[in-house]
Write a structure and sequence with these properties.
nine-stranded antiparallel β-sheet; homodimer
């Protein structure tokens, strides 16, 4: 579990990346940066920092930071009670992001999985996103992503976001950091 | 009606503002910048430049440019066939944007309407948006917006966008520039 001090250090580091991308945030947004460690306690390899601009029942927009080679683990957004799962568009703003989705396996992919978690990464169709490039992920589709060596800032535009319903390939994953932060 | 030369000049000028906001666009996006003159042929006062990142049946994201004191005229997004009209969140990225919505009239508002169009601006509750600030407009709510003296770059996150269904207070308004550009 991350300590408050660790979380604050990660937030400060995330702000450096928002600055590099020239993303202007309010003080409240900086204070509220979400640090997701996915319950694995290894944020250097597996983690994500994000600001949620808006999330209502119709649409959602977030600004995500990935530190160099940091990975958001493989997951999908399933349909719930007959309603299609979250569909999302990733747009790279800074650095480089490698996105992996279902489809033909890319030979010699640019990324490695976090060590010890190889079995929880099953889709290997690689999409490279430079600043200004974007990709839309259909709902209920397995995907994961990782930053290149300079880290990445990635905008996410999507339908309503409900982290609780995400299904991760790695059953150890928990999306609880937000709760701990607010205790 | 704008000529191709005029449209290209406006696009080049819009690119300067995207650059000021450090928004990275692909060459295709730069070519496809939409120049909306709203059929009034007076883009210096009434107009909008925009890039549509994504617009599907669930969500939409755009990056808009307003030149100094340029105005997007008053309109609303009505419900259609029982489906709620477009809801949208404006987030200022560069410059300053003044948004006017239904509600208590602001005394001494910062903006004037485009000359000769005063009667077509009926809502005067002012919201000032500096970079990093945002505001969400409920569906079917009258609104209009204008840039400050340095122009503005504004991100729009929303539900599905369908320009054809917009209802403008000024019945002369036509949203046809896009079609002319593609002829």
């Amino acid at each position: 579990m991350l300590t408050i001090t660790q979380i604050n250090e990660i937030k400060m580091k995330a702000i450096e990346y928002y600055d590099k991308a020239h993303i202007v945030l309010t003080d409240d947004e900086k204070n509220d940066i979400e640090v997701a460690d996915f319950g694995l306690g290894d944020t250097q390899n597996t983690g994500l920092q994000l600001v949620v601009y808006i999330n209502n029942d119709r649409y959602c927009a977030k600004e995500m930071v990935l530190f160099p080679h940091q990975t958001c683990p493989e997951h999908r957004h399933p349909s719930i009670e007959g309603k299609s799962g979250k569909q999302e568009t990733f747009r790279c703003r800074y650095g480089k992001a490698y996105l992996y989705v279902e489809g033909e396996e890319t030979e010699n992919p640019s990324c490695k999985t976090p060590e010890g978690s190889e079995e929880f990464y099953t889709v290997w169709h690689e999409i490279e996103l430079y600043p200004g490039q974007q990709y839309t992920i259909a709902s209920d589709t397995l995907h994961w992503f990782q930053a290149g060596g300079d880290g990445a800032v990635v905008s996410e535009f999507s339908s309503h976001s409900d982290d609780d319903s995400d299904i991760f390939t790695d059953a150890r994953v928990r999306r609880i950091t937000k709760i701990l932060q607010n205790m």
